[in-house]
Amino acid sequence: MSFQLNSVEIEDTFAEGFGMWGTRIIITAKNQKWANIAAEKMTGFATSVIACDCEAGIEREIPPEETPDGRPGISVMVFGFSKNRLATPMLNRIGQCVLTCPTTAISYSMVFQRMKLTTCLMLVPASVFSGTVTK
Questions:
Q1: CATH number for the domain including 77?
Q2: Which pTM was predicted?
Q3: Where does the pLDDT of residue 56 fall: very low under 50, low under 70, confident under 90, or very high at 90 and above?
Q4: Residue ranges making up the domain that contains 33
Q5: Which of 13, 35, 38, 90 has the CA that lies 20 to 30 A from 75?
């Protein structure tokens, strides 16, 4: 059995649900290559909050006309069990993985919010839940 959510088909499969805090950041850089490298480094070793400091994943590349500074970008979603447990990994990952990458900058596209998510729904692009990222 499946259902539709904002025109996206969701398969009804097993999933565990956890209340989590999440945020989205936009990483921009001189070119898409550097934005992607920063996002890949930031989301490394963030597949599960079990034994990791957070869950993180790349949502999508963002064209320059949709980013705050008019440069190529990429959006990253980051999740944790509490605001406090999310703040430290965000600071560490942004400071050590993003801002050390040449020409990068970040902006918050979504402030910390508490969400009820399931494992299967986390694979759906975040834009399904919150609309598209705009300038």
A1: 3.30.70.520
A2: 0.72
A3: very high
A4: 21-113
A5: 13
